[in-house]
Design a protein that fits this description.
Helices cover about 40% and strands about 15% of the residues. It is of the alpha/beta class. The chain has one domain: 2-enoyl-CoA Hydratase, Chain A, domain 1 (Alpha-Beta Complex). The model has no long low-confidence stretch (mean pLDDT about 95).
Length: about 270
């Protein structure tokens, strides 16, 4: 099912929208999406998610777009969901992107696009930011990048992230990372399969350009069908509703309330186990 009506996804309509949280460019069969909420470490505001969902759905149906590159401004690629926004503290914005018909699941936006997606990671990745990285076809990161799952330190658990990580990592590494909530380096991320290549600022664009040239020289239809098949046999998060409900259950716990309060107050949490 589409998240948006066909009339909302025409070329002219896409051009008419005001995007506030992301910047996009379409050129030479490439859609480049830039996360641009640097003051909030590119935390995923609800309307920011809607903007990503709209342009990704447009990319999915566009015969012109062959490859998607997602990158970010600032020193953090993405810090996951905006917890303040989830609790109702919504930032004022002038985005005119329409709301989707269904609830948007970040992992599905990327995994079910069925076009090659390249994550260009020049900033740290935390929490739900891994939904983008793990569901990308390729991921290239600078060598000094930190990847972290801090949810358990806030009384939460990375439910949907866990499912997405299982697409590219071993179950034992995934559950250990989710439980202990530590940070890993680019070197460890590559060893675990989370990223494809480690680059430096001088060659990261060359690496991406090489991938793009090879991709666009091959059959777009074959790639599209093949990626749909790949998603079918590797998707570990088919019961998205269950995972969402488990996340909501965790967020309503007293431990989550205490964890988030302790984080804001910059102190160690006093877990209640209730």
């Amino acid at each position: 099912m589409r998240l948006f009506d066909s009339k909302e996804l025409t070329k002219d309509k896409i051009k008419s929208y005001n995007f506030y949280f992301i910047i996009y460019k379409i050129k030479n069969h490439i859609l480049t999406i830039t996360l641009n909420r640097t003051d909030k470490k590119n935390a995923l505001h609800p309307q920011m998610i809607n903007e990503i969902a709209l342009i990704m759905e447009y990319a999915k149906i566009s015969k012109y777009i062959r490859v998607i590159v997602i990158q970010a401004n600032g020193d953090v690629f993405c810090s996951g969901l905006d917890l303040n926004a989830i609790k109702g503290k919504i930032d004022i914005h002038n985005s005119t992107v329409p709301k989707p018909k269904e609830k948007v699941l970040i992992g599905e936006i990327f995994s079910k696009c069925y076009k090659p997606i390249i994550s260009k990671i020049t900033g740290d990745v935390y929490a739900g930011g891994h939904l983008i990285v793990a569901n990308s076809t390729y991921a290239v990161a600078l060598e000094n990048i930190s990847f972290g799952l801090p949810e358990v330190k806030r009384g939460l658990f990375p439910m949907q992230v866990m499912a997405s990580l299982l697409r590219v990592m071993t179950p034992r590494n995934v559950i250990d990372w989710c439980i202990r909530g530590f940070n890993i380096t680019s070197k460890k991320a590559k060893k675990w399969g989370l990223i494809s290549v480690i680059a430096n600022r001088n060659n990261i664009d060359d690496i991406i350009d090489k991938w793009i040239q090879e991709i666009v020289s091959n059959s777009p239809k074959a790639i599209n069908i093949g990626m749909e098949a790949f998603d079918s046999i590797t998707n570990k998060s088919n019961d998205h509703q269950f995972l969402y409900e488990m996340l909501q259950k965790t967020m309503k716990s007293k431990d989550a309330e205490e964890g988030l309060k302790a984080f804001r107050e910059k102190r160690k949490p006093k877990w209640l186990n209730d």
